[in-house]
């Protein structure tokens, strides 16, 4: 059995994290999920710095990214990661409450792979998260690093 | 002085007029002189009126350069004569003006004065220049002719420069004015001629009267002569004698008696009765009466009668008989003489005829004639006098003559003059008519004498001069009128000058000046003088040079540039700073001065001190920049407000929705994991929480959409509305498996708009139509459009719940709902969004409906062309 890709999930709302995690579990997506609170922590994870200094090396299979976070928000993080040759191939899915046009455009300009508005209805939310997990964490093929 | 050549074209009429001493009268020289003097004072132009023989009728202002130099030197005087000749000849060739630069270098101009189409005189103006005289030419001329150069040039400087246009205006004005005055004068002369003719007639009439009165007197004299002759005849004629018996009427007589009766020999018998047989029937009664009277009164029987002789010839006889008495004193006989008086009678008849002829002559005269006795009593009048006085002659003869005049004293005085001098001529009196009118008359009167040469009375003939008086009055009126006209013209001219001067002077702040090509002043007004004083402390004078008067080098250069442009024919204006001692901004308009030959002869400038305005403009500019700053400030405030609004929308969409999602998510998780632990009521509570969260989520989405529609930029294109609407209907039809909705879609014209926004409008309208008609067994949805002149009108009509028109105003407001959430779910944002979008597109939205009867929603969009976008 091939190794399960890690999902890096940057989200400051613990409630969202719990809900998302629950949905993924219910959907039998058992990939390991690393939750970070903002862009800064997400970068630390990728670069194996700070609290992640000693983690097992390797890039996550995908990054689920919230747009609005403290310290470093989703767009700032996106800009840095997509410029970094070590990380630019990691698929990043923006999962956000906002459907502001400028956020959408900016995200894709920065090299985002998918933009998903979190549905308010839980059932819809669950469906979306499940589909995302299945596509990006399982189906989508990535080049070897 | 000027002397003109003889006019070769002179016609006899012209000559007569021109030669006539009345030329001076024709041109009312006193008035014209006054005008020309005014003209000279106003313009400084020398002028003169000369008749065609070169006689100067009037002249003023001759410059010393001509009077003291050119005309005094024999060489230059000869040139003058040639120049004069040239000018006069030119005018005789029917030129309207003649302008000539004389051989001595002076400019003269002349125009003919034409009265009643006859060229009668010339008006000259001269000794001026059209351009600044060339000093060199005159210096050379002074040397050539031996003039003292300095004096000569001083005299030259006195001659001014005028534009040709002005000179021609002056010439025009004076020649037409003079002609006008002349023509009025001509009328006067014609009237004088008429009067003269009238007077001539009058004199002729007077002469005729005189002849008549002479005839009258001669006839009177003849009468007297005849009387004398009669006496002679009487004395020398044979007398017949007769003696009649009063009883028997038997008559003894002499042979002469019988001869008188036509018998050369004694007839056999003679008696009173036989005598009566010889008397002509017409005289018989008279004879018998006279006989009866003589018998009755025993008086002399004295009578004249006609008799018929046997040869049928009628003779006049005169007889006178005397009674003869017997001793007892009883009349027994009448004895007398008889004479043939036929000759005398014929003479008497001739005299009477002459008298009647005289009388008729007098009576037919239209002039009132009268004879007055030595003591002033009227002895005879004619019919004209009767008419003039208005009384029959019987009432007039024997009365005092003076009582028939307005002024009896004057009449008496005239009467006395006649006695003093034997006659009077044209003695003016006014005859009174009994009807109250008066008649102005001229009396001609002479004394008449008897045969002894003693004055026995006055014969007077009056001449009605009412018409003459009328003429005189008219003449006087015309004369006064003419004077009035001249006075009027003079005052008009004066007014024009005043007006011109005052119009140039009256705007105190308008600087006006003109210069010639050498920048020498031609004219400036007080405002310019004051400005020069203020700016450069210079008292400018008319003979100064403008550029030299400017004390600042920089200003002089600027002024020269500006005036040179105008002298080059370019009108332009500037706003520039000028001044040395005091600096001001002047707005100046420069224009070339062009004469009628289209030559530029100078430049004018109209200027205004605009320092105040410039200061105001500077202040305005400052205020403007402040305003710009404020606008920027306000804009940035607005921009930041916009940013805040965006940030707000952002947090609404992000931060507010997150908790909702969490509520929804956790409710959902609770249901999944722990539903069986909850009683039914708890489950219902969870349902309500979930539903409320969902509603709030929709509200937030709607609000965001609404705010976005107001903010995002529009991208307008021509939209295919048919396609757009079909695209929106299609999914609804898909879901409507039972075909409960009946669609009626008309052809919808294309319109300009932002695709997403217009789509949102249609989407909202269609959703509403479906939603509010879903409780009907069958939904009827009609979609249509109307193309109007300037706009397109679209509508969506349904047969649903409709609405109360009382609340129609609330329909399009945000969060306003006319139905309960239970009946028709909704956010209350749809129609507000529609209105916002259509308003941004420049259109209108409205609705018509009734409760339970459906509703129609309209919106309009302006028709536009691609180019207007």
Explain how this protein is built.
The complex is a heterodimer of chains A (145) and B (869). A 5-stranded parallel sheet of chain A has the order 2-1-3-4-5, sandwiched between helices. Helix content of chain A is 41%, strand content 14%. The longest helix of chain A is centred in the last third of the chain and has 18 residues. Chain A is an alpha/beta fold and 145 residues long. Chain A is built from 5 helices and 5 strands; from the N terminus they run E-H-E-H-E-H-E-H-E-H. Chain B has 24 helices and 27 strands. In chain B, strands 2-1-5-4-3 form a 5-stranded antiparallel sheet, sandwiched between helices. Chain B has a 5-stranded antiparallel sheet with strand order 7-6-10-9-8, sandwiched between helices. In chain B, helix 21 packs parallel to helix 24 and helix 23 runs antiparallel to helix 24. Chains A and B meet through helix 1 and helix 5 of A and helix 20 and helix 21 of B.
